[in-house]
Structures are given as structure tokens and as C-alpha cells.
Amino acid sequence: MAQRSVPQALPSEFGVYFALLEVGALVQQGVQGQLRTDGGLSFVQFQILAVLAERPETPLSMTDIADRIVHSRSGLTYQIANLATAGLVARVPSPDDERGVNVSLTPVGASLLARVLPGHVSVVHDVLIAALGDEDRAELTRLLTNVAAHVRSQPSRSTRR
């Protein structure tokens, strides 16, 4: 396998960084078109709906959603407002924080997610999964899970200044 080209100012091990950026951008580019076409959704909006669908009976705080999808709270507020206007999510007062807002998936949002998911799965399979054998997928999942756990073990993004 050819070594990834890395600018001379950086250590050669940064090849993994550039490869990750390239693959991430290619996967995101592929799914963005499908999500727009099939559901009129941005990638971030899809992520929000998918996170809320994991436990539809449990509304999530804005901070929990922002940390989960790795998105700024201000940007998330904008996206949630758009989704709420479209009837895809509902904003409810937080029972734990009088200033807080929790978000839940509406039946309309769940229906839209169900409609776009098959195409999403197909695109992700075509641009990522199909390129890897079973062992490679398991190894890449293990490696990326380790990296994510390392980064998430640092102070929360929402608590950093």
C-alpha cells in the first residue's frame, strides 16, 4: 500500500489524519446528496433525527445532542428550530432545568427518517462498507472507537472555553 503524501512541515504519521479527512469528506459528500434528494435534510439534521430515534420515548437536552453529534450549541439551536418548524421534532421545557429545552422526535420526523434511511444505508455501503472486508471493517471500527473514546475522555466540548 502506498504511503499517503504528507506536507514536509508535518510528521509522516499525519498520513492517517489526511486519510481520515479524505474518507470523511467523501462519505459525507455522498450522503448529503441522498439526504437532500430523498428527504430535504442536511447532514446535521439527519444526525439529529437519528440520535433522537435511538430512544424516541426519551427527550434529549440540547447539550446532549450537541455533544453527541459534535456540533456547536448555537448551530444546533438553529437546526432544531428548522426541524421544529417542519414538524419533525418537538421542543419541550426541561423538567430538570427551568431554562433548558429538551427535544423529541415527532411521528412526522420518525416517518421521514424511515423514508430516507434505506437510501442512506445504500450510499454508506457503496462509498465505505463495500471497500472493506469483514476483518478490515471490524479493525477499522475498533481503531476509530478507540480514537473516539480517547477524544471523548477529554473535557466535554460544552465545558471548554
Quaternary state of this entry equals single chain
Q: What characterizes the major β-sheet?
A: 3 strands, antiparallel
> Which structural category fits the helices and strands?
mainly alpha
Beta-strand portion reads 5-15%
Helix tally equals 6
What is the CATH superfamily of the domain at 28-116?
Answer: Winged helix-like DNA-binding domain superfamily/Winged helix DNA-binding domain
CATH architecture of the domain at 28-116: Orthogonal Bundle
Q: Please state the overall shape, judged from the principal axes of the Cα atoms.
A: globular
Kindly, what is the distance between the CA atoms of the first and last residues, rounded to a whole number of angstroms?
A: 41 Å
Class of the domain at 28-116 in CATH? Mainly Alpha
- Poorly predicted ranges (pLDDT <50, ≥5 residues)? none
Structure commentary:
With 161 residues, the chain is mainly alpha-helical. The chain has a domain at 28-116: Winged helix-like DNA-binding domain superfamily/Winged helix DNA-binding domain (Arc Repressor Mutant, subunit A, Orthogonal Bundle), CATH 1.10.10.10. It contains six helices and three strands. It has helices at residues 15-39, 43-54, 62-69, 73-85, 107-127, 134-152, and strands at residues 60-61, 89-93, 101-105. Strands 1-3-2 form a three-stranded antiparallel beta sheet. Helix 1 crosses helix 5. The longest helix is centred in the first third of the chain and has 25 residues, at 15-39.
